[in-house]
Write a structure and sequence with these properties.
Radius of gyration: 23 Å
Largest sheet: 8 strands, mixed
Number of helices: 10
Strand content: 25-35%
Bound molecules: pyridoxal-5'-phosphate
CATH architecture of the largest domain: Alpha-Beta Barrel
Structural class: alpha/beta
Shape: elongated
Number of domains: 2
Order of helices and strands: EHEHEHEHEHEHEHEHEHEEEEEEHE
Distance between the termini: 23 Å
Number of strands: 16
CATH topology of the largest domain: TIM Barrel
CATH class of the largest domain: Alpha Beta
Helix content: 25-40%
Length: 356
């Protein structure tokens, strides 16, 4: 079979989806399935939907359109805040969007009116992670403006944590989000459909509490696809961490020194490389490189060490294995590596267990 390829086990993803829906559901929290890590791949989106997810979210309009055109039946949510100029494409391709700028919501309102649709808006609140969000003291004003606009409907508030600043959900920030939701409902006399948090790492908070206060929704991608592995935790027990397998092929296998020899200048990426002296080793080259994958997030399933990569070559120390030309090597991936392999046109995507 062709290499490099990404093998995607749909049965394992289906299992993860059912488990996540069940685990979060037990705390009264519904799931929005985030597809941006797989570019809105309709085959995978279909697995999300078949296993209990009704709202799909992506950061790119192109990915939402891809799923719509493939006939995936779900409510669609745009994660990344829209630009002013794409309001029209947003209301055509998304039913809901996350927003933090009233100027953009005004454009969404106009676009929705001219398309004859009702577009739902979730206002993002800053809770300290410092990516998107309205400062809490400015939220009431933004709500007031949003509810005054036609064509859009305020569907909820949300927040993004553990993403840019690495700030975890905790008693403080979750209480703040909950009380903001309550204040809006009291002041404006309507029920918020969504009090939404993300990303996958929010599970570590959720599992530690009996009830999630006013939080009733979580936007989750990584856990569904990769079992929620992160630096701090091994992942969520009972999930599959290996639904994705990267397969590359040996194109050279030779005994060579472990240190470059000759005068050292810059490498292909403009830095001066440093290497540990491992003596004479079997060096193996695989047919994948930085153009295809974030190689620092690849974990070989056999006992070899990744030494580095150029654009098109992955260099490994074969250690005690007897890797030879033509052999295939399999790797686990973290999110960044999965995302890049999904994005590379040079990596074939192969679905396993498609009939589930
Ligand atoms: C990416 C993203 C998520 C999901 O993150 P995962 O780590 O994949 O679970 C949730 N919310 C927003 C706003 C995002 O951009």
């Amino acid at each position: 079979m062709n290499t490099p390829r990404l093998e995607i086990d749909l049965a394992k993803i289906g299992h993860n989806v059912r488990e996540i829906v069940r685990l979060y559901g037990a705390k009264g929290v519904g799931i929005i399935g985030v597809t941006k890590g797989v570019l809105g791949d309709p085959v995978i989106a279909d697995i999300f939907v078949k296993n209990g997810i009704t709202v799909l979210a992506d950061s790119r309009i192109a990915n939402l359109r891809r799923m719509r055109e493939a006939g995936i039946r779900a409510t669609r949510l745009l994660l990344r805040m829209p630009t002013l100029s794409e309001a029209d494409a947003v209301v055509r391709n998304a039913d809901i969007s996350l927003n933090s700028e009233v100027a953009v919501i005004r454009e969404l309102s106009k676009a929705a009116l001219s398309c004859g649709v009702r577009h739902k808006v979730i206002l993002m609140v800053e809770l300290g992670d410092l990516r998107e969000g309205i400062m809490p003291q400015d939220l009431e004003e933004a709500v007031k403006e949003t509810v005054s606009l036609e064509g859009v409907r305020l569907a909820g508030i949300g927040s993004n944590l553990a993403c840019f600043g690495g700030v975890k959900p905790d008693e403080n920030n979750m209480s703040l989000l909950s009380s903001l939701a309550q204040e809006i409902e009291d002041r404006f006399k309507f029920q918020l459909e969504f009090v939404s948090i993300g990303c996958s790492t929010v599970y570590s908070w959720l599992k530690s509490v009996n009830q999630a206060k006013r939080v009733n929704n979580a936007r989750v991608g990584d856990s569904l696809l990769l079992g929620g592995r992160d630096l701090e935790e091994k992942g969520i027990p009972g999930l599959h961490y290996d639904a994705f397998t990267l397969v590359a092929e040996v194109i050279e296998s030779k005994v060579k020194p472990s240190l470059p020899y000759g005068e050292i200048g810059l490498d292909a990426f403009g830095s001066i490389p440093t290497f540990a002296d491992r003596g004479i080793i079997r060096r193996v080259i695989l047919n994948i490189g930085r153009q295809d994958v974030l190689y620092t997030q690849l974990y070989p399933r056999i006992d070899i060490d990744i030494l580095g990569a150029s654009s098109d070559h992955l260099i490994v120390d074969a250690k005690k294995t007897d890797l030879k030309v033509g052999d295939e090597v399999k790797f686990d991936l973290d999110y960044g590596a999965m995302l890049q392999a999904m994005t590379s046109p040079y990596v074939a995507k192969i679905y396993l267990n498609r009939a589930v």
